[in-house]
Amino acid sequence: MILTVIGIGLIGGSIAKELKQKKFCNKVIGVDSNINHQKIALNNKIVDEIYSLKQAVQMSDIILISIPVDNTSKVLKEVLDLVDKQIVFDVGSIKEKVIQHVNAHQKRKNFVATHPIAGTEFSGPEAAHIGLFKGKINIICNKEESSKEAVEKISELYHILGMENIYMNAQDHDIHSAYVSHISHISSFCLALSVMDKEKDEKNILNMAGSGFESTVRLAKSNKEMWTPIFTENKSNILAVLNDYIEKLNSFKSAIKEDDYEKLNDLILQANGIKKILN
Amino acid sequence: MILTVIGIGLIGGSIAKELKQKKFCNKVIGVDSNINHQKIALNNKIVDEIYSLKQAVQMSDIILISIPVDNTSKVLKEVLDLVDKQIVFDVGSIKEKVIQHVNAHQKRKNFVATHPIAGTEFSGPEAAHIGLFKGKINIICNKEESSKEAVEKISELYHILGMENIYMNAQDHDIHSAYVSHISHISSFCLALSVMDKEKDEKNILNMAGSGFESTVRLAKSNKEMWTPIFTENKSNILAVLNDYIEKLNSFKSAIKEDDYEKLNDLILQANGIKKILN
């Protein structure tokens, strides 16, 4: 089995590394427009060879597209135009637009839309590592639009990475992503911006980082190449969440302003409800 | 050496437990209005005996006040009214109001205002544990207003817990606390509220929690007994930060609305600056 990885970053690189170690594939071909990433991927034995997209697709059995979401639709179409029996899957955190883009493609059934819920705040092939996916969840969207064989193969692939597969409608997926993941990143970026604006002496940030700041700001280390496209591609869902979130902040603000203990207690108690869900 | 702990919660209980284990004191007296906390503290051997505040102060060498910040000033004054040579310290995350409250007290020099930067999202004596403070920072405020002997003793106490002592003006401390810690908690409470409002099916939250949500929402498990008083007592600083923070969120919002890639890239790149400070 030969796997092609288009976009050798944290996710693509980690998938390639682990699938080869676990002998799911015996060769990994890399496609990446970034020459530095090509070199690192070869040096770190994440990929065995580098080819052009066209050559790589023709040589392989499974093709993974793991590039920023604003480019996924275009590259996916290019790949589907080239495939015969190959199976193609992507790993982006937005699914509806990508699926719509190839909806009428004659090879639509060869494509499986997935979103493995895993990652770190680091990026690039140098961040790729084995074990990233263990015990995590992978979401497969609109599986009825893919061939049974393709869904089975990709499900197996994620099982091998230690993940549980669940199924979701693409539209629902994008709303949930906005609420549970994308807003967390915006919240974290803005926290970092506020603190750095105010705290000209970095020592004060360091001294107090243990007081909760470190965990809420971790995601602010995430890179623009991945996140700017996510924010714009999932625009309508994210704007809705952002409005909700700012509304909640304004509730806190007016309760603090008015020394409204009862209201603050009530807001905090409601927020504590998250304990029951996550513990 | 006999230590009295007024308010046997996560912080007070953890300090008591570790100081006794490390033989800094040979007896710990507990004072707590919550009978359930008294029982747990006795059962878990966090304290050796329970006394009234007056008896406890008279029997001990060092008195720790570890209760919610809205009550600290009042209890501190009661304690200072009773002390002779005893040393008193508090651990609250707001310092200016407390210090002002006892500024003119004839026993002011017996009091050391501290803020150990440590904690978890859990609370109560059942959450108390050894090792909570190791490698963390303790802030001592306005140390020139305390006697040299008192500052030395309390510094030694925190060293024994494995902490580094740093010194700060109380006013600065409260501003930094608002920026680096308190806003993180508000941000996290509001994230939890937004997500739970929208996601009526808790499974979706669980499935996607790995995508950054879990770390940003951890602090939303924090309790109202501690945080409502902090928000109202540090009101003016917190309102200033909250305004800044909402402004940053609005910048993100308009950049997303207008598909302004350049602006989004720029905001994320600026936020990434936190890497240099925290790594």
Account of the protein in words:
The structure is a homodimer of 279-residue chains. Helix content of chain A is 54%, strand content 13%. With 279 residues, the first copy, chain A, is α/β, with parallel strands linked by helices. In chain A, α6 links the parallel β7 (137-141) and β8 (164-168). The two termini of chain A are 40 Å apart. The first copy, chain A, folds into 2 domains: 2-168, Rossmann fold (3-Layer(aba) Sandwich), CATH 3.40.50; 173-278, 6-phosphogluconate dehydrogenase C-terminal like domain (6-phosphogluconate dehydrogenase C-terminal fold), CATH 1.10.3660.10. Chains A and B meet through α7, α8, α9, α10 and α11 of A and α7, α8, α9, α10 and α11 of B.
Mind sketching the topology for me?
The structure is a homodimer of 279-residue chains.
Chain A: E1 2-6, H1 10-21, E2 27-31, H2 35-43, E3 49-50, H3 53-59, E4 62-65, H4 69-82, E5 87-90, H5 96-101, E6 111-116, E7 137-141, H6 148-160, E8 164-168, H7 170-198, H8 202-208, H9 213-217, H10 224-233, H11 235-257, H12 261-271, H13 274-278
Parallel strand pairs in A: 1-2, 1-4, 2-3, 4-5, 5-6, 7-8
Antiparallel strand pairs in A: 6-7
Helix pairs in contact in A: 7-11
In short:
With about 280 residues, the first copy, chain A, is an alpha/beta fold. Chain A has 13 helices and eight strands.
